[in-house]
Amino acid sequence: MTEDTSTDLLSSHGIRPTANRLLVARALAAAIRPLSLAELETRLLTMDRSSIFRVLTLFRDHHLVHVIEGGSDGVHYELCRSHSHDTDDDQHVHFHCEQCHRTYCLESIAVPVVPVPEGFQLSSVSYMLKGLCPQCRFKQRR
């Protein structure tokens, strides 16, 4: 992700592009799967944990990241591909490998619509499948 692209992405979500925010956005964009806070820490050695967490919280509040719960090692974060800073219109299913503890995006599978009873107000949806990823399944067969 270029500096112009990441600046435009932040701006389109109502976020002022600072150096730390750009670093976190680029790290998430470069990742091939959702990342935990600890994984982001190892990739962003110039930032401390609390700074990364503050940026992620801001991104979450502006619908720039999805916060994925349900893995065994806390929450994971991925860039939201939505073009709205008000809603997340790109929700998809995730898969957590119980052996290697990685979380994968299954972008081709949309989160099913689940009607909530009258009186309930839905604020977010998390759809996590768990099992073995192809690599761990292959290792198990050998």
Instruction: Give the helix proportion (percent range).
Output: 25-40%
Q: List segments where confidence is low: pLDDT < 50 over at least 5 consecutive residues.
A: none
Proportion of beta-strand residues? 15-25%
Write down the domain tally: 1
User: What is the arithmetic mean of pLDDT?
Assistant: 86
Describe this structure in words.
This protein is an alpha+beta fold and 142 residues long. It has a single domain, classed as Arc Repressor Mutant, subunit A, CATH 1.10.10.10. The chain is 35% helix and 23% strand. It is built from five helices and six strands; from the N terminus they run ααβααβββββα. The chain has helices at 3-12, 19-30, 37-43, 49-61, 134-141, and strands at residues 35-36, 65-71, 74-79, 92-97, 103-110, 128-131. The strands form two sheets. It has a three-stranded antiparallel beta sheet. The protein has a three-stranded mixed beta sheet with strand order 5-4-6, with no helix packed on it. β2 and β3 form a beta hairpin. α1 crosses α2. The longest helix is centred in the middle third of the chain and has 13 residues, at 49-61. The radius of gyration is 16 Å and the shape is globular. The model has no long low-confidence stretch (mean pLDDT 86).
List keywords for this structure.
23% strand, Arc Repressor Mutant, subunit A, alpha+beta, 142 residues, three-stranded antiparallel beta sheet, 6 strands, single chain
List the helices and strands and how they pair.
Layout: H1 3-12, H2 19-30, E1 35-36, H3 37-43, H4 49-61, E2 65-71, E3 74-79, E4 92-97, E5 103-110, E6 128-131, H5 134-141
Parallel strand pairs: 4-6
Antiparallel strand pairs: 1-3, 2-3, 4-5
